[in-house]
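Bench notes, afternoon.
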Amino acid sequence: DDSSSSVAVKLNLRLTKNKKAKQGHMSASFYGHYTTTTIQETVGNNEGYSRYLDNHIGIDISNVRSLDENAQILQSNNYAFHSGGGLETASDGSGNNDDIGNVGRRKAMGGMESHDKYAGSNWARGKSGVNFEFRGSYNGSFFNTSDIVQLDYCSPSGFSKKGVSDVTYCPEPAAAESKL
């Protein structure tokens, strides 16, 4: 936000320009405004989820600050966000057995997944249609760690049920209804 209290983070991006791409009847500025407004209205402060958050840049903040501190900053600056993760889970909330047979990925994620820590992500609204996923660990200063659940794309709110360890797929409607 360019304030004196901001922590600068260097970020390298590679962008592509396609001279053959055609402009439709909606402009890029319309898309940016529409997605930003939609996310702010539907997500709020960890109250819902929008698929537009999936258009994001991922940043590992585990060596900078906790997800709790990140959420406090997002909230105080009025940036909508959704948080998901859990105990010994992948940072995207995709499972709770990632330490078994997956040493390479675990090492690549650095300090995010050490034993007995809650890890996850804060998906946050950005600007102009580009959003952010902040990956790291929770420390309990903002979130109640016992309430942290994985991201569930099938749930209207984006929150999975407690104790569900695999939310990486959406069951067929008939299969989901038969289990009720």
